[in-house]
TrEMBL record:
Protein's name in the database: Bifunctional inhibitor/plant lipid transfer protein/seed storage helical domain-containing protein
Keywords: Signal
Source organism phylogeny: Eukaryota, Viridiplantae, Streptophyta, Embryophyta, Tracheophyta
Signal peptide annotation: 1-28
Species, as recorded: Setaria italica (Foxtail millet)
Amino acid sequence: MAGSARVTGAYLCCLTVVLAAMCCSSSSYEVQDLKDDIMKNCRFYIEKNMGSTFPPEESVCCQDVRRANVANICQEFTDQDKEKIALHKWAAVTKVCRNALAAGTNCAGYIVPPLHA
């Protein structure tokens, strides 16, 4: 009976590890998908060579920004993304969309400055 309990315990331990890994992996895919949505829906506001207008609060861009953990999105920006976008514009968009990056946040190498009164 003791051997059976050990096998069951080991099985449950392995199952827990697998489920935890799947959960983290799925969360990573969600962040990546949301970053891709932001890159598409906010491109006119964050790309280097675009105008400096801000998105309307009701825009799809702002909807995506509000549902994102914006600091996690910063961690997902690749070198390719950083060639296309201006990180200071991304920080400004997060503020305009009411989900601002905190001052001092390191967003893919850009340090978000303190807000001026």
